[in-house]
Amino acid sequence: MVNDTKKKSRIGHVVIYIFLAITTFISIFPFYFMFISGSNTNKDILSNPPKLSFGPYLAENFKMLSERMDILLTTYNTLFVSIVYTLLAVFIYSAAGYILAKFNFVGRTVIFGFIMLSMMIPTQVLYVPWFKMMIGAGMTDSHWGVILPMLANSFGVFLMRQNMLSFPTALIEAARIDGSTETRTFFSIVLPNVKPALGALVIYMFTSMWNNFMWPLIILGSKTKYTFPVALAMLDGNPTNKNYAVIMLATSIATLPILIIFLIFQKQFVAGVMGGSVKE
Amino acid sequence: MKKKVLLIFTLLMVSMTAFTACSKEEGSKENENEKVTLTVWSWDVALKQLEASAERFKETNPDVEFVFEEMGTEQIYAKLSTGLATGDGLGDIITLEGEQLSGYASNYPEGFLELNDIVKKDDFLPVKMGEVTVNGKVYGFPWDAGPIAMFYRTDYFEQAGVKAEEIITWEDFIEAGKKVAATCTTPSGDPVMMLPIAPTSTNFYRMLLLQLGQGFFDAEGNTILNTDASVKALNLEKKIFDSGIALSYNGWDEYEGTVANESVATIPEAVWMIGTIKDKAPQTSGKWGVMNMPAFSSGENHGATNGGSLLAINAKTKNAEMAKKFVEFAMTDEQLLVDGFTNYGLYPSYMPVYSNAVFAQGDEFFGGQKVYQTFIEIGKVIPTINYTENFAEALDTVGSSVTKVLLQDADVQETVDKLQSDLVSKFGK
Amino acid sequence: MKRGKGETKSLWRRLNSLKNFPYFLIAPTVIIFVVFMVYPIVYSLILSFQEFKHGTYSFVGLKNYIVLFKDPIFYKALMNTFFYLIVQVPIMIGLALIIAVFVEEKHVKGKAFWRTSIFLPSITALVAYALVFKVLFNGDYGLINYVISALGGDKVQWFYSKWPARFSIIISITWRWTGYNMIILLAGLQAIPESVYESAAIDGAGFWKKLTYITVPMVKPILLFTTITSTIGTLQLFDEPYVLTQGGPDYATITIGQYLYNNGFVYMNFGYASAIGYVMVFIIGILSVLQFKIKDN
């Protein structure tokens, strides 16, 4: 009887490992395919079966790509909008989250209620008005035009509020009794103690802007201002003369930075999704 | 912690100033530069041709700098539909497909520069003048035209015992196609089909419709998709598709593949297909001919057109005069147009160049046939049709109707009636 | 100079008073949401009663809505979006739950590795991964078709026939988002006290019993959270059909978000696009209320 259960659970273990291995393979394979395809030719990719190992054409593809897309400038553009957006968002949302979680003031329910409700507004609805506003402000075809409207991100506020809720109120009150000003309390007591949440917010904001496609596509006109997703779509848009190797190389270059950041900060990434921490 | 916050703020400030500095730099650059800079949006061979034109233009206008940006058509249109409201971030000179101009020009009448003064109406093929004229004003400079003829494989025809000159009507064409499909095989051993058809695209239907002298809209912009001509065209497409002589394909890659793999005996396509055929199937040199399109057994038989582009100038350009000068030069200089034609198959719509010896030459790839004369004749009988601001949307919807008829066996009459009423409800006319 | 200093000081003090402080800190958020959320919502409502033609906007009353309710493509987009919702969301959440439970199993080694690699897809840009899938799904040369034909099946024209096109999009979204939901569920699973499982094990409960009687009920709130966020995400679906199928063939894969985009930014019917947006808001509102009602029960 005991043996039987053991055997059963051993089979169960094997099943679990096989399942996880397959899922992991499916999750990782497209990345592998993308990276190796960037070093092959268009013909290698469009053959039966496609070539599945690294090829010698990386330099050549890179040269072709740099003729059609300014890689450095695109990287700078994407970094710029992502970093500025993230910095602004972190400051604004952590302040908002703190206030919404720890203070009682007139209008709190209305403000928080509206922010929660606006999570349900499909972003596409906002594009037309945003676009007209940006025309009015003379901010079309500018990076600020990409950044500013995107700051109305309800999930970011929500994430910070949830994290601030669990911050011990006693600490804040103790600081007040010690004569610390409200500003000081916020900057030197509250913020340092919610570092994991801040890390999570940073990563959430950064990736969402790095990967943002539709709004930059609408607002950015000049090639010199494109971010990666827009530049990639442009590269793919030419129906004749399509070179998938070059496209895959460009995709790899666009994915690499975020992949590296992810591997370095994976704990915060994972924690960031829920705003809570995941144990080992 | 305070330090870190400070650091974040400093970083923020630095990046902000860096940004303003950047944008200032751009501004000052233009000021200190006495040279005029023209940004040109184009794609593919058109881009290459414009680059060559720019080199020639600079010989006499050394103060002009050109910036060329390669963009696909979809991207250009995505930018135009929003960017034309302000003109910000658009190129100075923009290439468009002929049929697309009317949508942008009628929605944004202030978006493009009027070119009435430099486009001389009688110099261009009437069909192109139709494309560039929107509400009585000329908003684009006509470039290449796409008169359609039937490319055919002389070797396959011979093998099947089919004679090109005996194919007069589409009925003849279908019969000949059956013979070809029964007798010929491709180098890889598959049966040869008579022609390629994309069941999810409107190309073949629009071509047939044009042969009957109409487009999607009448001169007043009313939708006319349930006319007899429309039913006739769609019925014929379905008949050809169902008769087992068509090779179904999807997308440009596969279209090229039908040529490269030698799997079709004919291709009804515009003159620019010459370039693709030579490029993708060099092994078939000498095995091609060009004939007139088969006719509908009764009714009118006009020429048809597919593709062909034009140049438009952003109304907010800082260098309107120079842009106009360049466009006029690139689009009317005989040597440039001839080069564009021989190098890239850009078939000019500027009629004065037709007298050039190049167009009277025979082509070895086509067994010495004087193919260009055929296209010149067809070019003159293409009907002028109205595109209107609703063309892009109608094109999508028509495409879905064609798909329904060809792939889902929908009734032709019902489908076009529904198409007509849906579009009338949407466009209000 | 002195006076200025005094002013800043009193401003500083005023800012720091318990009464004022919250307003100062919440102000940026309020301003941003008023400017970029409240105003556009009102604006697009007004826009939805207007028509853009020949460079000007004119008031047309309910016309856009009337046309919309007769627009067959809108219904197609609606049906497609609901199809994705009904088929894709349950598959994905179910898969995410199973993976999370497996990774959380006590004896499973290399938890961090499995977690990280399965989460990996959700960091990719939508455009980037859609491009990779476009190549993998290619009808003639795609690896997926190669595997299918190697296994003895027929090649599938993924992007050119109705159902395969829809499934190509479902497969792509599932690949992109399963890991993300898995992590969320993982956080929920870890909150379940070990003792609950232990006592269940003593009672002789097997794997499935534990899953259905303990795990699922305990993570119910988190399941609801993932379902709601996935629902909102699916209703706004745009990038994948835009890159993979352009909404075709015959509008078989078009989503509401994409139809809105086409009308506004391709056909330049900004008023009509706003009307679509408003109908969308209405639908999302109803769905959210429904889902919360279910939760209350």
Walk me through this protein's architecture.
The complex is a heterotrimer of chains A (280), B (429) and C (297). Chain A is mostly helical. Chain A has two domains: 2-59; 64-275, MetI-like fold. Helix content of chain A is 75%, strand content 0%. Chain A has helices at 2-37, 42-45, 58-68, 71-102, 108-118, 123-136, 143-150, 154-165, 169-177, 182-193, 195-210, 214-219, 228-236, 244-264, 266-274. Mean pLDDT of chain A is 84; it is low at 276-280. Chain B has 16 helices and twelve strands. The model of chain B is unreliable at 1-6 and 12-32 (pLDDT under 50). Chain C has a two-stranded antiparallel ribbon. In chain C, 46% of the residues are buried. Chain C has helices at 2-16, 21-47, 63-69, 72-104, 111-119, 126-136, 143-150, 162-190, 194-202, 207-218, 220-235, 239-244, 256-266, 270-296; strands spanning 50-53, 56-59. Chain C folds into two domains: 5-47, no CATH class; 66-296, MetI-like fold (Orthogonal Bundle). In chain C, a hairpin with a 2-residue loop joins strand 1 and strand 2 (56-59). Chain C is mainly α and 297 residues long. In chain C, helix 4 (72-104) packs antiparallel against helix 11 (220-235) and helix 5 (111-119) packs antiparallel against helix 8 (162-190). Classes of the chains: A mainly alpha (280), B alpha/beta (429), C mainly alpha (297).
